[in-house]
Design a protein that fits this description.
about 550 residues, alpha/beta, Rossmann fold, Domain 2, N(10)-formyltetrahydrofolate synthetase, Formyltetrahydrofolate synthetase, domain 3, 3 domains, 12-stranded mixed β-sheet, 20 helices, 23 strands
Length: about 550
């Protein structure tokens, strides 16, 4: 049931005059509606997260959409807030990030590709800043005396391209100052982070100006404000800061805005979109990337505090197939019933449930149903959760759309009525940086200890010396394990977390510890999704 986007907006309480139309199926929401809705009470916020992801698939986005469609079936007003897909995963492993089957967001092809141009605006802005740095190194017009060996701003591209991780630029005659450089994927850039953490256009502008891009030869911080290009960036970003409105396949309103990765950034859609949704709707669903140890932790520790928002409930997504993988079963054998493997995988689900309890959050477990789920396995899972007093629901929205999400929607309404959540962040900002890192490592990752490289030790010390000790911690870590080793499935108790480096994001107000071998520019897999698209009509 695809509706004209003006009708979708009307369902969300947005008049047509507050829209900038991009055809009849998508729109941007114009500035000013926030002031009109400011006096309204906030709706209830539901965060969707998941167990540790596996190649068996968990379906977190599909479940988020299913919940929105389930509310629609119940005639409950709700708005879903999602991140915008990055082209890297679209052409890499995922092939898209707009749900699946009858539990999808429309228009999927546009959202997965160019959409309304937000990713292109971000990439252009990031690379404009980079070009201004190298222009200053070449001409010295602004007298910033930039140390070419201490440029920390990276160029960006919205693509997985391992060949760009480490490069040398300006080779040849009169091309500038030759130096080592590299790219990050656009969604890992600090500019994406501040787009999603800013409260409004003015806040984005102030954060933009404070971004540290390099250091002078005397050790002085060089910021975007020093480069005198902040107004140029604002011209590129002006429309990108406006939330995008689309719909589910059943005509339910969806805001898709911003898209930082959760393993190398903070993993949440924009606060601008989420806070607007909370003023417009009694129920708001948002999704944080990957599992509770990454996206959910960052949403609850960083985004909620920056936005002054308080979630009412979490939905924790799992599948029997994924739990069997965590229990040691081989991927190719997952369709074979195996209650023992399921039982051995259950600690991963429990660990993520317990992680959310550490933030004071009550959870509903959403089990995505697969045709290969065996009745004996299903009965074991139901019995396991009932004995522990954990609320759960099975979801079958891929095949059935909103009708397959109604059960989950009912459980969520039931949980919201009991109000058992008492949200609080995991750590206090006044704690030293290492204490915050170790709190996350030991409480959320189940690490026995944290080891720091000499480089990481020095950078943490420098951050605190420069007055950034009270910043948030935004961990960069593999999503494939609670530890920093992607091969360790289940719950690797007592693992050692290795912090090899630390980066500072002053505009985002967080430090980024890089754990294990995590990189901020992904590579394509051996057989990218782009190759698989060759057999499909374009």
């Amino acid at each position: 049931m695809i509706l004209d986007i003006v009708e979708v907006a009307r369902k969300a309480g947005i008049p047509e005059k507050d829209l900038e139309l991009y055809g009849r199926d998508k729109a941007k929401i114009l500035p000013g509606i926030e002031e009109k809705a400011a006096s309204r009470h906030d709706g209830k916020l539901i965060l969707v997260t998941a167990i540790t992801p596996t190649k068996a698939g968990e379906g977190k986005t599909t479940t988020s959409i299913a919940l929105a469609e389930g509310f629609g079936e119940m005639r409950q007003n709700a708005i879903l807030c999602l991140r915008e897909p990055a082209l890297g995963p679209v052409f890499g492993i995922k092939g898209g990030a707009t749900g699946g089957g009858k539990s999808s967001v429309y228009p999927a092809e546009d959202i997965n590709l160019h959409f309304t141009g937000d990713m292109h605006a971000l990439t252009s802005s990031i690379n404009l800043i980079a070009a201004m740095i190298d222009n200053e190194l070449f001409h010295g017009t602004l007298g910033l005396d930039i140390d070419p060996e201490r440029v920390v701003w990276k160029r960006a591209i919205d693509m997985n391209d391992r060949a760009l991780r480490e490069i040398e630029i300006a080779r040849g005659n009169k091309n500038g100052v030759v130096r080592d450089d590299g790219f990050v994927i656009t969604v890992a850039s600090e500019l994406m982070a501040i787009m999603c953490l800013a409260s409004d256009e003015n806040d984005f502008y102030e954060r933009l100006r404070s971004i540290i891009v390099a250091y002078s030869k005397s050790g002085k911080e060089i910021t975007v404000a020093d480069l005198r290009c902040s107004h140029a960036v604002m011209r590129l970003m002006k429309k990108a800061l406006r939330p995008n409105l689309v719909q589910t396949l059943e005509g339910d309103p969806v805001f898709v805005h911003g898209g930082p990765f959760a393993n190398i950034a903070h993993g949440c859609n924009s606060l601008i979109a989420t806070k607007l949704a909370l003023k417009l709707s009694p129920l708001v669903i948002t999704e944080a990337g990957f599992a509770s140890d990454l996206g959910a932790e960052k949403f609850l520790d960083i985004a909620c505090r920056e936005g002054g928002i308080k979630p009412s409930l979490t939905v924790l997504v799992a599948t029997i197939r994924a739990l069997k993988l965590h229990g040691g079963m081989k991927f190719e054998d997952l369709s074979t019933p195996n209650v023992d493997a399921l039982a051995k995988g259950m600690p991963n689900l429990v660990a993520h449930y317990e992680n959310l309890r550490k933030f004071g959050m009550d959870s509903v477990i959403a089990i995505n149903h697969f045709a290969s789920d065996d009745p004996e396995e299903t009965a074991y899972l139901e019995d396991f959760l009932r004995k522990r007093g954990i609320r759960f629901a099975f979801v079958d929205a891929f095949e059935r759309g909103g009708k397959g999400g109604v059960g989950l929607a009912h459980k969520v309404i039931e949980a919201l009525g009991e109000a058992r959540s008492d949200y609080h962040p995991l750590y206090e900002l006044k704690m030293p940086l290492k204490a915050k890192i170790e709190k996350i490592a030991k409480e959320i990752y189940r690490s026995g200890k944290v080891e720091y490289s000499e480089t990481a030790e020095k950078k943490i010390e420098e951050c605190e010396k420069r007055g950034y000790g009270d910043f948030y911690v935004c961990m960069a870590k593999t999503p494939n394990s609670l530890s920093d080793d992607p091969k360790l499935l289940g719950v690797p108790e007592g693992n050692v977390l290795h912090i090899r480096d630390v980066e500072l994001a002053k505009g985002a107000r967080f430090v980024i510890p890089l754990a294990g071998s995590i990189l901020r520019m992904p590579g394509l897999p051996k057989v990218p999704a782009a190759i698989k698209m060759e057999d499909e009509p374009w």
